[in-house]
Design goal:
Blueprint (H helix, E strand, L loop, with lengths): L2 H10 L1 H13 L3 H10 L7 H16 L7 H25 L7 E10 L2 E11 L4 H8 L1 H27 L2 H4 L13 H16 L9 H38 L3 H66 L4 H21 L1
Antiparallel strand pairs: 1-2
Helix pairs in contact: 1-11, 2-11, 3-11, 4-5, 5-11, 6-10, 7-10, 9-10, 11-12
Length: 341
């Protein structure tokens, strides 16, 4: 059986489907339960006791589900709980409005040769800026990402054009001393001259250096504009994110808490079932590869040996008693061939 066929057989097997269904049923309302336990009671719950009760709940849900390692599930809970418990401590100590606060983002930089802590923008007291942007400022974030992607594409297009230039251009004053890149100022000058030639009737094909230099000039202009816009847009998004956090409604705070606390934990636990199947598939694939070919080789070798022996027996001569025994052995070998067929 091919590896891909084996994988599909495992996925489609009734036991696999039953396993996946049992896991899904076990955790059907788990997200809702987490919301009630953690978000509805965030200001009053006992933080140290809560992880114990949640682990017991997870173990109870996993009890009827085969293949899942309950301690692996607990480790996933413990990993996520590190961040959740920290947020809960802040909220219980400072109050619900702590979720709407921002603070200076302090970083260490070299100032006059010394490591100095300086402010580099802002950060949320509870919520990371990237989470707030993903949930509430998706359009602005997407616009910035498009410009980032375009800048990457421009670099690729530039490299392709440079590689296709003639050696004459690569060795000219249009390139730097290392001869591995064009000099922007020189490209702009050359582009103006080429445009003047075109106005005077000159014509160039797509493969001519002049056409490629014009394209590089256009790319350089676009790149310069995009880089400026990227800085401006990033600063504007940063300021907007700060203002968004400071003006969150209570409902929006709860929504962000769900995305920060609950969604990662639920996703991590749901990965247990698919991970278990992946491990099983890998093990079976390994065994199929290790022993499948070996068994086939053994079978082929036995068949070949039997055929050789059968032929040798046919060539032997001897007494009637001996020949009678050899004929019976020959029948036995013939019979084994028929069974295999």
């Amino acid at each position: 059986m091919k590896v891909e066929d084996l994988k599909q057989s495992i996925i489609r097997h009734a036991d696999t489907q039953a396993f996946m269904e049992s896991f899904t049923i076990a955790f059907t309302d788990f997200k809702t339960t987490l919301g009630k336990r953690l978000i509805d009671n965030m200001l009053t719950l006992n933080i140290s006791r809560e992880i114990e009760e949640l682990s017991e709940d997870i173990f109870r849900r996993l009890a009827p589900v085969a293949l899942i390692d309950r301690y692996e599930a607990y480790q996933l809970l413990d990993n996520e709980w590190q961040g959740i418990s920290g947020d809960l401590e802040i909220l219980q100590t400072e109050g619900f409005d702590a979720a709407k606060q921002i603070e200076a983002n302090l970083v260490t930089k070299k100032v006059k040769g010394k490591d100095t802590e300086v402010q580099d923008g802002w950060k949320g007291h509870i919520f990371p800026f990237d989470l707030v942007q993903k949930i509430y400022l998706a359009d602005e974030l997407s616009s910035l990402a498009e410009k980032e992607n375009r800048l990457v594409a421009i670099t690729a297009e530039y490299d392709e054009l440079f590689d296709s230039l003639s050696e004459e251009i690569k060795e000219s004053k249009l390139t730097n001393e290392a001869k591995d890149a064009l000099v922007a100022a020189e490209v702009v000058k050359a582009a103006k001259e080429i445009m003047g030639d075109i106005k005077n009737g000159a014509k160039y094909s797509e493969e001519d250096d002049e056409t490629k230099i014009l394209k590089v000039s256009v790319l350089l202009t676009e790149e310069r504009i995009l880089k400026k816009e990227r800085v401006t847009d990033a600063e504007a998004l940063h300021t907007l994110t700060k203002r968004t956090i400071e003006n969150l409604t209570d409902v929006e705070v709860n929504t962000l808490l769900e995305f920060k606390w609950i969604t990662p934990l639920v996703d991590a636990l749901h990965s247990l079932s698919s991970n278990s199947l992946s491990k099983l598939t890998q093990q079976l694939t390994y065994l199929a590869g290790k022993y499948g070919t070996t068994l086939q080789d053994v079978s082929n070798q036995l068949k070949e040996t039997e055929q050789i022996l059968e032929g040798m027996i046919g060539d032997l001569t001897g007494g009637e008693h001996d020949m009678s025994g050899l004929r019976e052995w020959q029948k036995l070998l013939n019979g084994s061939h028929n069974v295999k067929k």
